[in-house]
What does this fold into?
Amino acid sequence: MKLEDLGIVSQTSEGKRDRVYCATDILKILE
It folds into this structure.
């Protein structure tokens, strides 16, 4: 999942905050 976090960080740099929130919700569900 650490690799996923790195991908999310990259998307954040691009300004795609919506996807970050969606990904965060998915990670919470997986946990």
About this structure: The chain has one domain: 1-31. Residues 1-31 form one domain. The first helix runs from residue 2 to 14.
